[in-house]
Write a structure and sequence with these properties.
16 strands; alpha/beta; 39% helix; 319 residues
Length: 319
């Protein structure tokens, strides 16, 4: 008879345990508790209910007043956020060896400081809803934007995660923004600084790097990258300005890439589709690609036609 199933499984287990002993980063087995992504996502859902009280509700609760609902949400948020903070604060070198009481106190301070920022987050989100409504002729109702626009959801998560980032919270802000990334295709690093009235139209494929600074009334279409000119420096680039600055009232059309920490797109500039920019653009400028042309080839023997796109610079406005 061959080897029994139990013996084969036992041999596989022993081989796996031996592989865990290689001393690599991936071999670490719970040197301390790890944050729970499901709980972090639940925190985001509770925050969504707090930011949009008339739109997102937990129907399992019978709550009769806004005050009671708000009290319940804030208590839940403080409890679950503090639990996750106690875990991730050990990633900070100064707290790696801290005792539980020190971690609990720091977590409580951060949790309360964060909750106090929610009115500010709501102030900014209200302008983002307005920007989407004003900027998208396909939007018939603001409710439509709040319930369904992936761009608004990505911005909401970023504004939440950014406040935690500013409070020095490790890991959790990135888990939040990567959750939004997985749902929307929009990748905004929690370190990015974004002004009021920010509108993401369509959204899929947008990348906004950690040190990006975006002013007010900025509109960005799908496929835009606000990135670093080079990451060859690796860890030596940490905490350095690597991503561009976008000033107020700028529009960036689909497929454009704007790279580099010294790159500034001046106020009121318009960046056309598929532009690749690594140098600053002055205020009010319109940037588009002149060398492109459309080529029409026909199967019926008709002569090939070429249409230079620079005959009408309105092309890059059409989405």
């Amino acid at each position: 008879m061959g080897e029994s199933m139990e013996a084969r499984i036992g041999r596989l287990v022993e081989a796996q345990i031996a592989d865990y002993g290689m001393g690599r980063d991936i071999d670490r087995v719970l040197s301390f508790d790890q944050p729970d992504k499901a709980i972090i996502v639940d925190i985001l859902e509770k925050l969504q209910r707090l930011v949009f009280p008339g739109y997102f509700k937990n129907k399992t609760y019978k709550v009769y007043t806004v005050r009671n609902d708000t009290s319940m949400l804030i208590e839940d948020l403080l409890f679950y956020l503090q639990k996750q903070l106690i875990i991730v604060l050990r990633y900070l070198p100064e707290l790696a060896e801290a005792d539980e009481e020190a971690l609990r106190q720091r977590a409580e301070e951060i949790a309360f400081a964060f909750i106090e920022k929610i009115p500010l987050i709501r102030e900014y989100i209200d302008t983002d809803v307005q920007a989407a409504f004003d900027g998208d002729p396909a939007a018939f109702y603001k409710d439509e934007i709040i319930f369904s626009y992936p761009g608004l959801y990505a911005i909401f998560v970023n504004r939440v995660a950014h406040e935690l980032y500013l409070l020095g919270v490790p890991l959790i802000p990135r888990v939040m923004t990567e959750h939004a990334h997985s749902l929307t295709g929009i990748d905004i690093n929690p370190g990015a600084t974004i002004g009021k009235y920010f509108f993401i139209d369509h959204g899929t494929g947008i990348v906004v790097g950690e040190t990006t600074v975006i002013g007010e009334n900025v509109k960005v279409y799908q496929g835009v990258t606000l990135g670093a000119a080079s990451t060859r420096g690796g860890r030596s680039l940490n905490n350095k300005k690597r991503h561009p600055t976008i000033e107020d009232n700028v529009t960036i059309y689909s497929g454009a890439s704007i790279l580099g920490g010294d790159t500034v797109i001046g106020e009121g500039a318009v960046i056309g589709g598929n532009c690749f920019i690594t140098h600053s653009v002055p205020a009010g400028a319109k940037v588009y690609i002149r060398s492109q042309e459309l080529v029409y080839k026909y199967d019926n023997g008709e002569k090939e036609k070429r249409m230079p796109l620079d005959t009408d610079d309105a092309w890059f406005y059409v989405i």
